[in-house]
Amino acid sequence: MALLHGTLLFTILSIVSSRSILTDDPIFGQPEQIHISYGRDPTLMIVTWVTLNQINESVVEYGQDDMFDLRATGNVSIFQDSGSEKRREYIHRVVLNNLKPGQRYFYHCGSDDFGWSSLYWFTAMRNDSDFVVRTAVFGDMGRDNAQSLPRLQEETQSGHFDLILHVGDMAYNMDIDNARVGDDYMNAIESIAAYIPYMTCPGNHENAYNFSQYVAKFSMPSSIGTYGGDSNHFYSFNVGPAHIIGFSTEFYYYTEFGFDQIFNQYQWLEQDLKEANTPKNRAQQPWIITMGHKPMYCTNSDDTDCINDGGYTIIRTGLPFIEAYGLENLFAQYGVDLEFWAHEHSYERLWPVYNETVYNGTKGAYIDPDAPVHITTGSAGCDERHDPFGIRRPWSAFRNNDYGYTRMNIYNASHIYLEQVSDDQHGKVVDNMWLIKSKHGPYSYFE
Ligand SMILES: *[C@@H]1O[C@H](CO)[C@@H](O)[C@H](O)[C@H]1NC(C)=O
Ligand SMILES: *[C@@H]1O[C@H](CO)[C@@H](O)[C@H](O)[C@H]1NC(C)=O
Ligand SMILES: *[C@@H]1O[C@H](CO)[C@@H](O)[C@H](O)[C@H]1NC(C)=O
Ligand SMILES: *[C@@H]1O[C@H](CO)[C@@H](O)[C@H](O)[C@H]1NC(C)=O
Ligand SMILES: *[C@@H]1O[C@H](CO)[C@@H](O)[C@H](O)[C@H]1NC(C)=O
Ligand SMILES: *[C@@H]1O[C@H](CO)[C@@H](O)[C@H](O)[C@H]1NC(C)=O
Ligand SMILES: *[C@@H]1O[C@H](CO)[C@@H](O)[C@H](O)[C@H]1NC(C)=O
Ligand SMILES: [Fe+2]
């Protein structure tokens, strides 16, 4: 009996398994983690997404009134996670060309054979002189406790923003659970990042396996027209009257991945700033705005760098002993106007500051100031909660510890408006300022 049963079972199993060999295994190819980013000029938009199986087609169907009359194809690259499961993900990147400035496009992405995403839309970057660039700026948003995300989604989908700057630290962390936390995060931010460009710089939470998750999943523009990879560490783009630079403060801390990355980035920054300062370029993009994760100045009481040095000294003055590759001088020398930071889970606005000294403008602190303005905005919400404040320093103008994010409107060559939104207080604006400049360029001590 036992033998007969065994044979029967074997026969049934054979039939079942041969059936699954004869019929094709279904392949799950649904696009996920969809997000967009700006290219090097207003006529481009980059669409990036992930499939969890190897789908070899990367297609975006898009259009204006006739929704899918245009079709663009791109490339897929394999990302292998370094966790124990060695999971693979397939990263699809498609560049949309020749977009009409200011035109709204509908799109979905995927492939004919393996399915399409939901329908999304974006507005191609405007290039007219009336373009007010409305930006959301924040850092330190996790998969868990992403408290600002619903409000950001509401404002994004109702058309209040043109782009997002995420100033490092995301997911907490992208590598955890064999990269599934990163997948969850990327899927969660689809509600904003599939509609407006989501421009990023890396934070310390992205450091796992040499920043490989971060490098694989975003698509920041390089100067030679490629997207993603190393350009996710440092890059620049123009939007309206602003030249925006994203860079890595983390090269200075995770030197086990290569000291040369500090030098390479510094050289690139200097070159990029030089170009941005040619009279022609500075006339077109008078504002130079940077974003990097770890702040040159901070007054939080749970961070030894803030307590002992008032900020991340290595970023500000350079590597210990040799004092090289510091960014405060470089940025002041080329007249950077505004510097965004995060890492501290709070909001702090500084008076115009250089070398720990306040350089207010003569007609008002932020009217033609003689130093860059620093804003630290790292309170979007994550499972590490808040960072409290300690002793106030003379350069610290305003501090707030609610969850929230910054809104920045770049009006024209002379006016930028900034405000801090508190999510704890249901969207109340808890701080605001105008930065007004009649001229842009190197500060007086560099002329
Ligand atoms: C994609 O291409 C690879 C390599 O050529 C192949 O192994 C895989 O089966 C292809 N995927 C699909 C869904 O056709
Ligand atoms: C796809 O790869 C080809 C060849 O490597 C390259 O020329 C092209 O720019 C890539 N396209 C995208 C969207 O990255
Ligand atoms: C904006 O883009 C349109 C279409 O590409 C072009 O014709 C126009 O000259 C551009 N305007 C400016 C101010 O660059
Ligand atoms: C880390 O990645 C960068 C490129 O993103 C590469 O240049 C560097 O060699 C890598 N470092 C190590 C130790 O693998
Ligand atoms: C910064 O200020 C200190 C004095 O507080 C001075 O010794 C130093 O030379 C200044 N550095 C620069 C680059 O101006
Ligand atoms: C800068 O301006 C602000 C606002 O007017 C003022 O409170 C602060 O004391 C000024 N700081 C210096 C050093 O002048
Ligand atoms: C720039 O924008 C500000 C704020 O809207 C406005 O007050 C100012 O007049 C504008 N300047 C020019 C030159 O348009
Ligand atoms: Fe951080």
Automatic annotation (TrEMBL):
Q: Does the keyword rRNA-binding apply?
A: no
Keywords on record: Glycoprotein, Hydrolase, Signal
SUPFAM superfamilies attached to this UniProt entry: Metallo-dependent phosphatases, Purple acid phosphatase, N-terminal domain
Catalytic activity field: a phosphate monoester + H2O = an alcohol + phosphate
Q: Where is the Purple acid phosphatase C-terminal domain?
A: 371-431
Single GO MF annotation:
acid phosphatase activity
Q: Which Gene3D superfamilies match?
A: 3.60.21.10, Purple acid phosphatase-like, N-terminal
Q: Does the keyword section mention tRNA processing?
A: no
Q: Where is the Purple acid phosphatase N-terminal domain?
A: 31-123
Lineage: superkingdom: Eukaryota
Domain annotation Calcineurin-like phosphoesterase: ranges: 134-347
Tell me the leader sequence span: 1-18
Enzyme nomenclature, EC number: 3.1.3.2
Group of enzyme by EC: hydrolase
- Can you tell me which family this protein belongs to? Belongs to the metallophosphoesterase superfamily. Purple acid phosphatase family.
In its UniProt entry, what is this protein called?
A: Purple acid phosphatase
Q: Which organism is it from?
A: Rotaria magnacalcarata
